[in-house]
Each structure stands twice: as C-alpha cells, then as structure tokens.
C-alpha cells in the first residue's frame, strides 16, 4: 500500500512540475472595469433600446431636460412620430420622462415628421406662473406640403404639450425660399436687453436662416410697426449667414454665475454634407440686423450618422455641447442617439474644436497593450463626406499602423453586448470613432466595425480571462470559443493563444 502511495505522489509531483515547466495555467474567467459614457439617452421607460435625434435642452433650476425626435425607422428614411423627453441633475444619470408631443395630435402636421424642436420657459402674466413652449417643425398639410414652424404649450417641461392649432410661421410666408424645407429647426433665445426690455427671439432654417421676435404670449410674431400685419422682410427677416451654413441653428450667449448673458451672440449650426458642426459669431449686438461670420468648424462628420444637430447650454458651472450620432446598434442618420461633450472657450471667446467620443466627459478611456509591448490601434482615417463610404465595417486593427495618432489607440471597455448580465463579457469601442467596435470577421480576422444592422453583438463580444501568459488579461471570442485576440506582427487576429505573450494584454486608464 505504501508503495502505491509513493508512486501516486511521485506521479502528481511530475505532473505538477510538467505544468510549471510549460509555464501555462488554465485561464480563468475574470472581470475588468467597464465604462459608461456616450450615448446619454437611448432607452425608454422599460429600458428598451430607443432612438432619438435632433437633441435640444432646457435648464430649469437644478434639472436639465433633453428633448429628441423619436426615430422609429426600420429603413433608411425618416420616420419620427413624436418627441421624447429625458431629465438629469448631473448629466450622468438620466430619467426617461416619456412622450411630450405626438404628431397625431397636431392637426396641420404630418404623423411621421416630428423634426427638430426646442423648448423655452416663460412667465405667463395671465396665469401667474411659468409656462413651457415647445417650438417644432413638420411638413404642413395646410400649406402645399411645405415645412412650417409650430408651437405647443404646457404647464410642465415634461408635457404634455398642446399645439396651438396652426403654425406660428407657415413655410409659404418666407417667400425667398430655395426649398420646401427651408422652414425647419427652430431655436429660441430669451433675454433682457440693455434697454431693460425683454426680447424673445425665434430663429430657424435650412439653407436659409430666418429670425423674428415673439410677442409676450410666446405664440405670435411681433408686429414692429403695429399695423396689424406681419410682413416678411420687416417682422420676419432672412439673415445673412456664412455660405457654409446648412441647417440646425442654435442661438447662444455665455452666462455668468447669476445667469446674466454676456459677450457675443453665437450661432452654432450644421455645415456641409455629411454634416460637420460649426459656429459663427454675430458682428454686433443686434440679432435682427447684424450678420453672423463663421469662426471655425467644431466637429467632423460622425462615423455613424449623415446628419448632426447640437444644443449648447450652461449647467453645473460649465458649458456643454449635446449632439447626435448613430452609435447604438443598427444606428444611422435615421436611427440616432444623443451624446455630450464639454465645450471650451479661449480667452478671446473662440470655441475649441472637439471630437465625437465614446467616453464623453464622464467615461473612462483605456489603452490596450500586449505583454510584448505592442499597443492596439485602429487605422487612422478621416470620416468620409461621401454617403457610399458608410457604414464602416472593415477598418484595420493592429499596432504601429502608418499614420496612426494617439487617439487611434484609445478604447472604451463596455459591458459585453451579447449579454448584459455576464460581468466577464466585454465589448471594445473606439474612443474617437464612437459606435465602431473590435469585431470578429471571417473567422480569425479582427476589424473595427459598426453594428450597422443590429446583428453584430456576438462577434463584438469577448470573454475576459486571466492572461494566457500568466499575467494580464486575455480576450476570448464569444463567437469563436477557444480563439483569443492576438496582437502579433503588427496585426490583430484571433489565434489559439500559443503565443501567450501576444494574446495577453494590460489595460491601462488614460489620465
């Protein structure tokens, strides 16, 4: 009996030494930190994926309200039946407030055309309390199918808003039209001027920029000479703006700690096609008369959406820039979601350019480096202005890529798209190409790609294991179990992990 025990112990020792000599231990599932960030909405009251574009904002006390047009399109065409609202007190935790206006309740509008809108708060003398005015646009059934500007009213920023029954400005009224959709994308600015008088400006336009003042009732255009007639060119004016202007105007001035506006007037807008974000500054202090001159482009076209639309506002002591892209699964310019960045001014009041990012202001950005010292990057590219270049589904991944810059090697580690309940699963999103993920393609190829059809969750999800090399972390493909992301000879591929150093990584936070 003792002989067998000795033999058994000897065999166990031999096996143990052999395992040690091989230098490999069986990798075990492990968890690594995940990051939140952009997008900031994209869900309904039950947590279901929900698209919404053309964001606008309203600050009321310690709360910010975000409004979007609800994208429900299943193909590449607009289908926007209603407006949704979200709220937040910290820009990180968002509450779905529901539908605030449905186009089926707008007698003159079109059921699937809840295009861009903006909400304003104003004290109502008659009721002795604040009311909320939601300015919006839609195809006008009463005006030969042109787009017109409407307004709906509520006692609450979360609605429901009730349309006043007719457009506040009909498309046919602006007689210098170059298209039937010149009259879209309203923006509102209210302030007390140096003359001590309150001024309520309504501005809008695609291809053109129109502006007027509103009466104190907030639902009618101011008649400057009191002749009882609203005249185009006098009461409603077509403004001179930069030639680069496309659409999505947003009026803004900086405000101090007391909420008092100061400095120049800014016009933020969409530029060109696919749409960049840009801004202009008013040459003077008369919004009705002076001209806007372009200062700079702020943001390149999105990697996932053909359009863009911004909201600029002050909140929590800083200035913020909300925009949209198509970074959700099956996202596009017709299925959009809101994102946020901080906006920065220099000492001359000029605005710093920015990238769209996956992390936004509050997420965590990481680098991913193999134990051989190779840094994971995607190929450097500028988002194309050509529609037929999209969606991006085959961007090279590797290390030491020609032309790659620091941002091309930054990543946001998300909860795995395949299963939100399994903490050992991750998806790896590009920081500067939001909505594009490390993706298994063709079995053992790894590329950067968008989930353009909403069916890429499995090939964009990896299980995190203790490093095959005995340290770090390894990423096992969920779609191809037993194969691991491997950074070798300048390329990212899937292998069986025989080169454990190339298939094991350190994930470090970018400070």
What's the CATH first level of the largest domain? Mainly Beta
Oligomer state of the chains in this structure: single chain
Unreliable parts: 1-23
User: Per CATH, which architecture of the largest domain?
Assistant: 5 Propeller
Beta-strand residue fraction: 35-45%
At the fourth CATH level, what is the homologous superfamily of the largest domain?
Glycosyl hydrolase domain, family 43
Strand numbers in spatial order across the main sheet: 1-2-3-4
For the record, the count of structural domains works out to 2
* Largest beta-sheet details: 4 strands, antiparallel
Would you count the extended β strands for me? 31
The name CATH uses for the topology of the largest domain is: Tachylectin-2, Chain A
Molecular shape: elongated
- Give me the Rg, rounded: 27 Å
Give the mean pLDDT: 94
**Residue share in helices?**
under 10%
Number of H- or I-type helical stretches: 1
Report how far the terminal alpha carbons are from each other: 63 Å
What would your notes on this structure say?
- The chain is mainly beta and 511 residues long.
- The chain has two domains: 51-343, Tachylectin-2, Chain A, CATH 2.115.10; 366-509, Trefoil (Acidic Fibroblast Growth Factor, subunit A).
- The chain has one helix spanning 2-22, and strands at 51-60, 63-71, 82-88, 95-102, 115-124, 129-139, 147-154, 162-163, 187-192, 198-204, 210-213, 236-238, 245-255, 261-271, 276-282, 292-299, 311-315, 318-325, 337-343, 366-370, 377-378, 395-398, 411-415, 425-430, 436-441, 445-450, 462-466, 473-477, 484-488, 491-495, 505-509.
- The strands form nine sheets. The chain has a four-stranded antiparallel beta sheet with strand order 1-2-3-4, with no helix packed on it.
- The longest helix is centred in the first third of the chain and has 21 residues, at 2-22.
- The N and C termini lie far apart (63 Å).
- The model is unreliable at 1-23 (pLDDT under 50).
